[in-house]
Amino acid sequence: MAVAAYQLKSELARVCLPAPDRSAQRRLAWVNSICIFFLAIGVVGARTRLPVVSRPPAIEQPVPIVVEPLATPPPAVEQKEIEPQNQDDKQIAPRVVAVTLNTPAIDFSVPTIGNLVVPMAAAPAPPAMELRPTVEAAKAPTVAENTGDSGDRPKPDYPELALQMGQTGAVIVSFTVDDVGAVASISIKESSGHVLLDQGAVKWIKRHWIQPPINGNHLFETRIIYKF
């Protein structure tokens, strides 16, 4: 005896319960959608290029440049060339002397060429004194004071390391200048007892001071005092 197929009569049950062949199609549709989604992501990612990151240029650090004034060279002294003289060109001048003749007829000297004849009664000539070369007196150094924070001879800066170490003292510096006033040579005449203070004063004077000569004197000295 054949059994009749069961059929839902309630409309609510038909809406809530899925059909037996409907769930398989939904799964296939969801799988296809996910595959298409990932495929689209891959295509878009392949076309998109990664941004090129440019490196910033290297930062150049400024390097301090110290320009020292060039010392003017002393004026060149022209040396006259001494032409060699040939011994053959030298003319030997005849030696003219006065000869006294012991004759009663001639009572005066007669110039003639020959050796000098002096009577025994004549007094001998005093010996010639040797000429000594003149020695130029050494000029004493002229004292040059600093001109404060400005001017031709500004006051030297206090060395930073010596200031941190609490070093104080006074240094006497002797220096020479050229015709335009630039420092040609410099030396420490009396030290302050600290190398930092001595070297600081020497470098500052050599780079920053201008001292024209006074009355032809090119030698100067100055006293630099370092104190808090």
Topology:
Elements: H1 11-16, H2 22-47, E1 96-99, E2 110-113, E3 142-143, H3 160-164, E4 169-177, E5 183-190, H4 195-208, E6 219-226
Parallel strand pairs: 3-6
Antiparallel strand pairs: 1-2, 4-5, 4-6
In short:
By secondary structure, this protein is an alpha+beta fold.
Could you tell me the CATH topology label of one domain.
TolA/TonB C-terminal domain
Shape: rod-shaped
The helix/strand series, from N terminus to C terminus, equals HHEEEHEEHE
CATH class of one domain: Alpha Beta
Count the beta strands: 6
How many angstroms does the end-to-end distance come to?
Answer: 128 Å
CATH superfamily of one domain: TonB
Percent range for helical residues? Answer: 10-25%
Number of DSSP helical runs: 4
CATH architectural name of one domain = 2-Layer Sandwich
Q: Approximately what portion of the residues adopt beta-strand conformation? A: 15-25%
Strands in their spatial order, largest beta sheet? 3-6-4-5
Given helix and strand content, the structural type is alpha+beta
Radius of gyration: 56 Å
User: Which regions contain 5 or more consecutive residues with pLDDT less than 50?
Assistant: none
Mean pLDDT: 76
Largest sheet: 4 strands, mixed
